Amino acid sequence: MISERMLTAVVKGIAKRQLDLKPTDERFMPPAEDGRTYMLYLHVPFCQVLCPYCSFNRYPFREEVAKPYFASLRKEMLMLEQLGYDFESIYVGGGTPTIMIDELCETLDAARQHFNIREVAVETNPNHLTKPYLEKMKGRVQRLSVGVQSFDDGLLKQMDRYRKYGSGAEILERIGEAAPCFDSLNVDMIFNFPSQTEDILFADLEKVATCGAHQTTFSPLYASNGTIEKMAARLGAMDYGRERRFYEIVDGVLAGGSQPLFHRSTLWTFTRNERRDAAGSAPAHPERIEEYQTNYVDYPAIGSGSITHLGNALYVNTFSISEYNEAIAEGRMSIMGKSVMSATSLMRYRFLLDLYKLRLDKRAFERDFGTTVDRGLPIEMAFMRANRAFECDDDCQLTLTPRGRYLVVVMYRQFLSAMNNLREQARNALSGEERRILFEDERTDE
Question: What is the pTM of this model?
């Protein structure tokens, strides 16, 4: 099979050409399409600890900075209402969205007053799985995703998470207490840390299986141009040579065997197979994936550093908190750059996203793009077939072999890395105090 290194280089080159950020003077994102409902992504960039592998917009938490930021978020949300948007779902990412829980709750309550919200998904960190936070989220938040990364104390200390978020044992206990408060609780994990051994990975998988979470994501560690040096200094040099073996361990333990505890929802998202009660009914945890890009192809995104995907374009908001607040105060959005994708780029994105979700519907692809996947993407299809990637390849669908699953893991990991590089282009535009804070990697104490 083609080497991981070669495939990574190919996808990296394609993504670099496709995801190039250009300046724009557009003051608002495009209006909503008539009769269509959307998901809304909100970005909260504040963290107690700036993790070395994270390329999302994030700032050391300061209450005097965060409080007016939440007020700007609520104002920007109303701009979307004026543009004709309605939302059935909200995803709040970060950063640490729960870092000011009262401000978050006020923002979610405002969203429900203006839009037809059916469910809210929020990211958090383990130190917020405590009674004061859970009581305020219960009923407001249906789906919670907890950034654990690993239960291993050594890895947590390497990432500077042990001191802030607690030991693996403490995190495990909190997850068990929090899970009943939500329709779905997802545990967000990472595999292939440089110092992670197979034994550490097996121990993490055992804890995930017993912690009571409804879902888990096990994503591979990946870097961007802006994080690779920090990651190497803190965690050690990346070793992609182990990635396939580690992925096979994750997939085999969670979804393999005759009676697996979990089933695959995507290549690296696994949902628990619920036990049925005496009447044969299973608890109702909706089959939704805790990665907002996979549930909605198009979505508006608000907040500093957020990336909107609508039609053939990506709109990137400024990474500067002060510039973001100024734009909202002036009654406009803070779009600082735009990346326009070609028809082929959109087909490649759809191809990758559908296979990441384990199945590509050929008829839907042809309906949406006006051409078959074979005619639209002949090189990609030839490559996948040559590497025996497809389990099913008929007139209706494409599904993946185990070999194909890992190929798409590599491609999707590299695509996400390229998205991080797009963020780095926006972050590099920072100047002054904000640039000093981020590039010197300040940390804060609560």
Answer: 0.89
